[in-house]
Write a structure and sequence with these properties.
Length: about 400
């Protein structure tokens, strides 16, 4: 048989739409928190596919679930239901405030469902004029036209023609601006309980309480986008559980499938009944393969020892980053919670987060950025202590090479 042609990085520039600019190396294999490229170079993975690979690469529980389901049933339309979807929905509702689940394929789709539900509910109950959606500057909610417009970064939504209307952006953590603006016309407030793409920004206690309060006062729904914070990432199964308030609607994806595409919108019985038959849908939403894998992920991540292990690993990261900082004075602060961490660069290092990412790659470490001034870490929730230590050593070497 003819030997297969080796895949070249140059093919990307020939055949892929240029909306991405991927690294030169091509990963071909992963195990745990390690990844190997075509040349057999080894990398430690502190990126986790942007908070997706919550159990690392090829976790045995996930491989077993996928293999088993792959022999049984791959797809059905939503004219029928299936066992993995029902089991997963039951588990998710047991683990949080929600009574009802809508399955989708991604965070953007889960957010699209959340926004459509909020608008539909408000129209049904209060009338068409109650339609304003409030979101926050620097927020990120996906790339569909509705979700990208609700997201608070105009660079992502400009240039595609007229945008969906009645969306207001306020500054995150500004209680005064929030109280002044919310009115009886407000249908929903959508927020990340910890801003991910916007720079790993935590909400103040006062702000998060105020958001819940103004929603109650004005009969507005509170939507939590937990696409990045959910499924154990912050050390709680969902981040709201560590904030002392409960949303009305929650979106989840990324870590939910541990690398298999799946998203879900979670809500209460009272709201769910407004998405009657025919009002919303998804061809692949609730797909048996995706739900089987997600069920395996949820089983592992929801274990108390997995969640406790997240805080333990967070401490190791914070200690290691502090040690690097003692030597190189590069970070102004370490932000975030659990294993959604951001190392903010100080005055001397402004705009160089991408330089750190590239230098880390050269040392065999995968990291992320959140804007030009924050190096972001979203590793596996079960990454070994040894991999954390070795990854931090590589990060230190990368920073040393830049500091020279």
């Amino acid at each position: 048989m003819m030997e297969e042609m080796k895949v070249q990085r140059g093919w990307f520039d020939e055949v892929m739409v240029p909306c991405y600019s991927p690294m030169e190396m091509i990963p071909v294999k992963g195990e745990g928190s390690r990844v190997w490229d075509q040349e057999c170079n080894e990398y430690i993975d502190f990126a986790g596919g942007i908070a997706v690979s919550c159990l690392g690469h090829c976790h045995p529980a996930m491989v077993a679930a996928l293999t088993e389901q792959g022999q049984k049933l791959w797809h059905l339309s939503n004219v029928m239901t299936n066992e993995p979807a029902l089991r997963l929905a039951k588990k998710l509702t047991d683990l949080c405030f929600a009574d009802k689940v809508f399955f989708a394929n991604s965070g953007a789709e889960a957010n699209e469902a959340a926004l459509k539900l909020a608008r539909r509910y408000s129209a049904d109950v209060y009338g068409a004029e109650k339609s304003e959606i409030i979101a926050f500057k620097q927020g990120f909610h996906g790339r569909t036209f509705f979700t990208v417009t609700v997201g608070g970064q105009e660079a992502y939504s400009d240039g595609f023609g007229p945008k969906p209307g009645d969306i207001t952006h306020l500054p995150y953590n500004d209680v005064e601006a929030l109280r002044q603006h919310v009115s009886g016309r407000t249908c929903a407030i959508m927020m990340e309980p910890l801003q991910g793409e916007g720079g790993i920004i935590e909400p103040s206690d006062e702000f998060i309480q105020a958001v819940r309060e103004v929603c109650q006062q004005h009969n507005a729904l509170l939507i939590f986008d937990e696409v990045q914070t959910g499924n154990g990432r912050t050390g709680h199964f969902y981040a709201y559980q560590g904030l002392g308030i409960t949303p009305d609607i929650l979106s989840t994806a990324k870590s939910l499938g541990g690398g298999f595409p799946i998203g879900a919108m979670l809500t209460t019985n009272k709201l769910a009944e407004h998405l009657k038959v025919g009002t919303h849908g998804s061809t692949y939403g609730g797909n048996p393969l995706a739900c089987a894998v997600a069920e395996a992920v949820v089983d592992v991540v929801s274990q108390p020892e997995t969640l406790a292990g997240v805080a333990e690993r967070e401490a190791l990261f914070r200690q290691g980053l502090a040690k690097i900082n003692d030597k190189y004075a590069i970070f102004s602060e370490i932000r975030g919670k659990g294993l959604l961490l951001g190392a903010a660069l100080n005055e001397q290092w402004q705009g160089r987060a991408r330089d750190v990412l590239v230098a880390a790659g050269e040392q065999g470490l995968m990291v992320l950025v959140a804007g030009p001034n924050v190096v972001r870490f979203t590793p596996s929730l079960v990454i070994s202590h040894q991999d954390i230590a070795q990854g931090l050593e590589k990060l230190e070497k990368a920073i040393a090479s830049l500091a020279q």
